[in-house]
Amino acid sequence: MRSLIWLVLIFTVAVVSATVLGRNDALVSVFYDQWRLDLSLNLFLLLLLGAVLLTFAALQAASGLLSLPGRAREWRLLKRERAAHAALREAWRELLAARYARAQRAAQRALELQADVPELKGDVGFSVLAQMAAASGQHRLQDRRGRDERVRQALAMARDRNLPGAAADGVQLLAAEWALDDRDATRSLALLGELPPGVARRTQALRLRLQAARMKRQPLMALQTARLLAKHQGFSAEAARSLLRSLAIEALEGGYDLQQLQQVWQALDASERADAWVLARAARRACDLGHPEQGRQWLQPAWDQIARLEPDARKELSLALVACAAGAGTDWLNRVETALARHGHEAPLVAAAGAVFAERQLWGKARRPLEQTAAADDLPARVRRDALRRLAQLAREQDDEATAARHEQRAAGLD
């Protein structure tokens, strides 16, 4: 196609030339002093065109010759700029390859080359990337003082030049992560607290906040962060459920009096309060603090629907009721009898029924469940020990001191 276009252009030029220059009737005379030079018009035009082209070529050659020093300087600057970019790429490449000392040297070389290139001196993004590459290498090499100094410089540059937020946010996120590596949860939380609201809700920021909160033993903060992570699908559904459960239990463990425990309980979500494991741990914690009535109050709604729960959930609730049986009223008799009628083959539920019957001193109903509980090897030792002590109490009620002593001895032998 290109050849065809050139051929058409050549033919066009030939036609125009033949039309314009076909007749050579004109004459051009040049007078100089006593000399006279006669030229045909066509020759004069060709010479004039040649002179113009020659003059243009001479001017171009002179311009190129005079611009050689400037072009050489630009070439040297371009070479330094390319070397600086190459050093920065090498720094990150060595960093990813776990050659941290080389990465630090390459980043420092990039910064030195940047200082020699006017076009790069004002490039704050380049400086921040180089500083963070060097800081990452220093962090891996345990040079905390040098790392913190580079982080400070990178943050100062990013903020002073109003660099787009991604740079400063990235520096702060890395600094918060490194603070966690140093086991400094307070500093990590402080850095995360300086992030803009939108950045603070990003998955990485939430993960760091969760780790810092757990490290600082603040389960409620960790629980709130874990909820946000679960909402953002930062975990799988099963992992999120397990994590939220463990954090809720940890928060309940931190209640050292009933008021504090109630405050933690109210801070939990409805789904967390409905979780059998969380509910059971809250009830047991209330019993440990000397308030079994509060534990039973929390257990009551779940026990009213215990037939709908999974066996593992019934086990947790049953064992919690065993711990909170002290002072159980007559309203619990109907609940445990109904549950026993439906799931009498489950040892934890039998243990709960025996504990409630014994607490109400219904020894006729309590004997069989207590004996089954004492013989169930799959139950916790403390539950079997409580059953044996209640059986000893029943034996003493019947003036059978030998049987009571035997039960006490068995209870003492359980670890």
UniProtKB/TrEMBL annotation:
UniProt main location, coarse: membrane
Membrane-spanning ranges: 42-68
GO cellular component: plasma membrane
Biological processes per GO annotation: heme metabolic process
Residue span of region Disordered: 395-415
Pfam (any one): HemY_N
Annotated localization: Cell membrane; Membrane
Membrane-topology annotation of the record: Multi-pass membrane protein
Amino acid composition bias (Basic and acidic residues), ranges on this chain: 403-415
Domain HemY N-terminal: 28-120
Keywords attached to this entry: Cell membrane, Membrane, Transmembrane, Transmembrane helix
Stated name of the protein: Heme biosynthesis protein HemY
Organism phylogeny: Bacteria, Pseudomonadati, Pseudomonadota, Betaproteobacteria, Burkholderiales
